[in-house]
Amino acid sequence: MTEVAAIILAAGLSRRMGEQNKLLLPVADIPMIRHMVLTYQNIATLPVVVVTGYESTAVGIAIEGTGAEIVFNASFAEGQQTSLVCGLSAIPDASLIFVGLGDQPLLNGRDLQHLLAAHASADPARISIPIFDQVRGNPILIPKVLQRHLVEEQNVPGCRAFTRNYPEHVQFHELTNPGFYADVDTPESYSAFNCKFLEKTR
What we know:
Layout: E1 4-10, E2 26-27, E3 30-31, H1 32-41, E4 49-52, H2 56-62, E5 69-72, H3 80-90, E6 96-101, H4 109-120, E7 127-132, E8 135-136, E9 140-143, H5 144-152, H6 159-165, E10 170-174, H7 187-201
Parallel strand pairs: 1-4, 1-6, 4-5, 7-10
Antiparallel strand pairs: 2-3, 6-9, 7-8
Helix pairs in contact: 3-5
């Protein structure tokens, strides 16, 4: 059986949203970060790991009772790479690891299944990244064989830099599902998301 783990990066400062922490905004009457945890739990075979930083207590309260494991990144203000390393260092042994964001509420379980299927039909030793119209999406899917390399590359600022510097370790998959490419960073993008979400639930 292929063990699938998931890391949700949820440590950012949420500056572009203004006074509100985007991860705590409601999605179908629950906090966005809780919605994301439940989405990944539909697919992951191991407990979801949530890397917190900014407003970590509030984020932790928002996902209470889900069974997710919380890892606090004391260096969260230094950027997303520190959260990635923190999450990868805490993840249980797994064949595949989703590394996703806490602000992609249009993402659903079918999207994650599509990415898994695309990875399985390609090179299982490479990082799989969704792409559409030259736009890279999230989450990415990391095979166990590359986990150590990502942790060791702490001087490289994030997965994006690693995948650009080492293209031999990467494969892109044309996936059109909008959930891969829509994140919520601003009040405007949150408003647009709510409109799309309402349309899907009618």
